[in-house]
Amino acid sequence: MPKSLNPLALLADRWQPPYKWVERVALATVVMAVLIVVGGGAVRLTDSGLGCPTWPTCTAQSLTPTKAMGIHGVIEFTNRMITDVLCVVVGAAILTARSRTPWRRSLTRLGWGQFWLVMGNAVLGGIVVLTGLNPYLVGSHDVLAFALLTVALLMWQRARESDAPARDLVPRPVRQLTWVLAAATCALVLAGLVTTGAGPHAGDARHVHRIPVNWREITQLHVDFVYIVVGLTVALWFVLRAIGAPALMRRRVVELFAVLMSQGVVGYVQYFTHLPVGVVEVHMLGACLVWIAMVRVVLAMRERPEVTAAAAVPPQESAVAAGV
Fold this sequence. Notes:
By secondary structure, this protein is mainly alpha-helical. 71% of the residues lie in helices and 1% in strands. The protein has helices spanning 7-14, 19-45, 70-99, 105-130, 135-159, 172-198, 215-242, 247-272, 277-299, 309-312, 315-321, and strands at residues 167-168, 302-303. Strands 1-2 form a two-stranded antiparallel ribbon. The protein is flat. The two termini are 26 Å apart.
């Protein structure tokens, strides 16, 4: 039988990374996904959204910003370079997952999912620039960034688990409450994105179209969702305690509550201090941390056996270790 000419399969024949590498590279994709959100926030908050007025080059004549474009061009171009670094990290995650023996298709699929999200968001980012920072497209750009963060978290989690079927750790009504909390958190994040699209930080010092809603009213809706999410989080903690759920679940819920409280403090500070740039940037980082904590709560409701060093050793390595 002829060997496959698939370059990934050929690489897997010649390179066997340590099993922990998949987990570490998957964690790196999570970090980079957060940096993409924070970097995009920095572009918007410094009015650098059109620092490079075209795409994929920075100007019609230059790939990189020119001296005349000043700091705004540098900030926008740096954000584009972060995407390039993200591509490298996601590529490393795909190659590392594919090269492990036995090959776990579930991990490489999550890696490729990240790749296509990055590519789609890069193209959408270019359209955002070419349309003069259309707020609806900017919001869609942010939604894809959070989707990327979600898939990166799933890959990080699955890298530590085997491919055995998942086992639910709590009764169905508790899982349903958890999904209601997840849906409310999603609505909270989306309301925050609409608030940003209607607010004063448009991404460019010149006139940029904003979402035509009352900024203060949508901010109040955002705050209402905060109260709902906090209430559901507290309710879930009491339910888990009442049924004697594993300590890890309760700890994940406590982590979510702590992040929500911290994010709430930052939110009130930014509102009453009239949205200073530094505080808003911290709030955007906090949004990522809230979403990460929420996803970890959902994942804690079920379990798979963890991948162990012994189970992850390829058959040929096991034979050598046994002296065969």
